[in-house]
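Hi there,

I know you've been waiting on this one. I reran it after we fixed the sequence typo, so this is the corrected version. Both the input and the resulting structure follow.
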Amino acid sequence: MEHARAVALRILIDIEEKGAYSHIALQKLTGMERREMALVTELVNGVTRRRLTLDYVLDQFLKFPLSGLTYPIRNDLRLGAYQLLHTRIPPRAAIDESVKLAHKYGHPGIANLVNGVLRSLDRRREDLSMPSREDSLKYLSITYSLPEWIAALWLERGFEEAKMLAEFSLKPSRLTLRCNLLKTSREALIEKILAAGVDVEPGVLPEAIRLNRSVALAEIPGYNEGEWFVQGEGAMLASRLLAPQPGELVLDIGAAPGGKATHLAELMGERGRILAIDINQARLELVKSNAKRLGIRNIETIAADAAKPLSWEADRILLDVPCSGLGLLSRKPDIRWHQNPEEAKKLPELQSTMLDSAAKALKPGGTLLYSTCTIRPAENEDVVSSFLERNPDFRALDLSSRLPEEWRPDSHDGMLQLLPHVHKTEGFFVALLEKKS
């Protein structure tokens, strides 16, 4: 598996140096055997998830900060440390491969440094120094590899809940499929997938199918036939709560790559008009290709800035706003390093502007679903509450009767925050608003 480790290191360097997201980088890999690809995925995502903890541990064996080393060498050390602490790869193999990679990216002295640090870590792995729980912020940050601003944000919910959120952020998320009910039934699709040897079970929502183990998508039958789409249950819930009806005009704002737009079309029985709006024309091509694969023909794509006035009068609007993405840390671990508090502080203003713009494009009596994939009240409850104060012609609709029974107790004031450790989904927020007649 020497080649897999070398590929993993190249991706890790790109993630840190160029800001390339790991899930995008991994998709670009071609010509690898399935076993090698699985190892690359584990190593890249594992090191990315635990980067801060790995750095803290490695610094204990260096005479200078890890940050003083080049991108290739510090990621080589992280890769070696991750293999020693979190995989069953034999220590000798992990260390030897790291030393070989160090020779490739540095001089012999650097290779000796890598060898010495990793051998010391292997010998003393049971005696590592970690922060005390008495310093809750540092403990959460270092133990669970979270930037301090995220740890501080979650500590506002109390230490125990913050700890559970942090624990779930380190666990690889379970893949969820949305059954295309225009093509097949969930029961038939589950039977077909089980027959192919892939372990799945029904999700909470009627079209959701949860995978019980990690598999390559190519192993799951029905893709080419358009029988399923990869989508989290939080995103599925948004379309279900909006409940589009046949013959209506529906706007899906922030539509790319098309998961919600195609789901809306399926819920409407493909009868009605869906306008998939996104500021990025290139990403709208993904909406078109996904709709084509799923056999959906009633979606029109429009490149537009939804923060500016919209010229339609829609029956229903699904507004998925740009957000900090903190509900997706288990699925996209690199978000924790590429999001920052300064940028996050600017988001509520943009979200409020987009919500105001969308509200003006809604018919009286119409409904609007506001959604984010984050766990941050400033982007969720605060944005919606402020909007309702500014717009007395809108009201929040009660979600209780619209939700699966097990999720009903967690909704309030027309809003619901899904939490990974509670609902076993991504962290997702929804609010359903109605424009008074």
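Quick highlight: Residues 341-360 form the longest helix (20 residues).

Best,
R. S.
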